[in-house]
Fold this sequence. Notes:
This protein is an alpha+beta fold. It is built from 10 helices and 6 strands; from the N terminus they run H-H-H-H-H-H-E-E-H-H-E-E-E-H-H-E. The two termini are 26 Å apart.
Amino acid sequence: MSPAKKRARSYDSAKIRTAVLAQFAHVREAVAGLTADQLSAPTQLGDWTVRELAAHVTMAVGAVARGLEMPEPATHELPLLDWPSGTATESDAIAGGTRELAASAQPAELFARTTARIEEALAEAPDTRLIPTRFGAMTLADFLVTRTVELVVHTDDLNDALPGLDVPYDRQALAACTRLLADALAVKAPGASTEVRIPPFAVVQCVEGPRHTRGTPPNVVETDPLTWIRLATGRVGWGAALDDAKVSASGERADLSKLLPLMG
């Protein structure tokens, strides 16, 4: 099956909606207790501070409400599996908007406003409703899956910036994020010679070569969900993850270094 025709896995819409709201609430609660010095702390995202990172989280989640408030697009333009590869094209615009938003209000106000808007917007919106995004029109159901990626990745960024903060991860949000990024790898490198295992959430086959049919696959990569997410988004390099024993890789086709990251 070609990447363009690869069918996205199905997600339980009710669980995804709950997961997005739950993970956003976790971040909101954590940010509410931060001091001015903590909000000014640097992050691993270029020159962004924690304040700007927090603002970006509200912008990413608020995009759901903004999309639902706009006229519905006429055509479905962006399949879910095409979303990860397109995100880097808008990085400059996203960075500029984040800085403006962070300067416009205190984090508590941004989180309160966003929570109210998204809860109201989702109350009556059907999963099939098309909403405009920076990358093309998507169904609401698919766009909410992408919000789990934004939330989980940036929760990890926040925990990295402020050791000891330990913002928790909603299990369903972590699972959806892991699965979407695993499927994105299979789209980028179609094939069945290598098995990538990310227990307990995902297993995908990828990379061209001899197809595995039975027994132990000749090429196997295994890692945990957060390490996988960091690899897929460029927070951690392949070599560093191997050196730190965060990834196990066996077989001549198990080197994923040229395929990562999947998102900028």
